[in-house]
Amino acid sequence: MTLGEAEMAFLQKSFQEYYAEASSSLQPPKAFDKREFGFIPFRREKSMMRHKGFKSLPDLAAFLVNFTPSDAYYSSAYYERPEAEDMAGKGWLGADLIFDIDSDHIVTSCKTVHDSWKCLDCGLEGWGVEPEKCPRCGRRRIEADKWVCEQCLEAAKRETLKLLSMLEEDFGFSQAKLEVAFSGHRGYHVHVADEAILKFSSEERKEIVDYVSASGLKASLLYPELRRRSTREVDFSAEGWRGRIARAAYSLLLRKGEELKELGLTGKAVRLLEENREKLLRELSAGDAAGIPWKTWERLLQAAASLEAALVDTVVTTDVHRLIRLPGSLHGKTGLKAVLIESRKLPEFNPLTEALAFPEERNVKVKIVKPKPLKLGGAEYKFKAGEIVEVSWSPAVYMIGTGIAVLLKGGLQPSEA
Ligand SMILES: [Zn+2]
Ligand SMILES: [Zn+2]
Fold first, then answer.
1. Which CATH number does 363-416 carry?
2. Residues with CB under 5 A from ligand 2 (ion)
3. Is 313 one of the annotated active-site residues of the chain?
4. Per-residue pLDDT tens over the stretch 333-390
5. Catalytic residue status for 235
6. Is 121 a known active-site residue?
7. Which CATH superfamily is domain 18-104+150-211+312-353 in?
8. How far apart are CA 286 and CA 238, in angstroms?
9. Residue ranges of the domains in the chain?
């Protein structure tokens, strides 16, 4: 999607006004002068401007007002010379541990409502997540039309909460070392700034990803006695995954038969579980799973592992030179703020009300070109294609930036208000 000239100018002017007011809401990373900064300009050619360094927050704030980028990033790494143009010359000192959780990668039922795709070769269209190749012609030139809704963001939050609990309970990071940030669009970032991980290599970071995402986790390795007939220990209070899958498998047993079948249990197994549920739960609480056929129990533990795994993006965590969105800056597509959230406040955080950047008083007239479900600032918007509407500033920026609306000629410009 490419924005028109007027739309791009509107967004840049809006962002500039935000940055002129917002230097206090910028949340700079620690060891500020050791970070590399990068920016994407408001231009058709969206190449990133990298290798910038700033000595102070006022310098950065002034740059944001004068240059007004569409997106602003800083490095998870610390460098001796962040401005050096080649990586070797920068003098890498270490990097925070970063996790990226993106609702785009999470299967949610809402995607069949708001996402669609089209085969660019044969024209076949469909709803939901795009297939890897076209089911009709088999080619791979597929154009996806994606959207993010409240349900998508909730799903991303659930993954983030699972990750946080593992970082605290299994890795022992204190809450003070964990920072959560809403990305301004589709998900959350978790930053761990701790001496212990600072010098970790990509491979070491990959092992952490594998751990939190339960990659390659086999229930039978955590419970070698799984196939034994007489007694089968269930260790709810065990540290790490051994306890985690036991607790989660127990709660799976409380689910309805239909849901159990969806986890891959056979009809026979489900009947057995349903008919003996009370007794089995009682035995399980006492720490023994021998009443459940071992194959069924193994499947439950394995299903529990995939439900408890945190879906994080491997590439982001293993890249020790990664640039990540600057908290307090705006997302170029949505105009929402990247917001830092205390990890204990994440459950209550609502990005669709708390990440709005623009004052409500100003209205902007826009024309809807591609209707999508939108909920922002407590209001729910339902539009038809071609409709002309007047909305307040934040939703106007969101709609124009995501390309679902265009600026109406003569519609109120922020500079005129
Ligand atoms: Zn096709
Ligand atoms: Zn959704």
1. 3.40.5
2. 110, 149, 151-152
3. yes
4. 999 999 999 999 999 999 999 999 999 888 999 999 999 989 999 999 999 999 999 9
5. no
6. no
7. DNA primase, PRIM domain (3.90.920.10)
8. 14
9. 18-104+150-211+312-353, 111-145, 219-308, 363-416
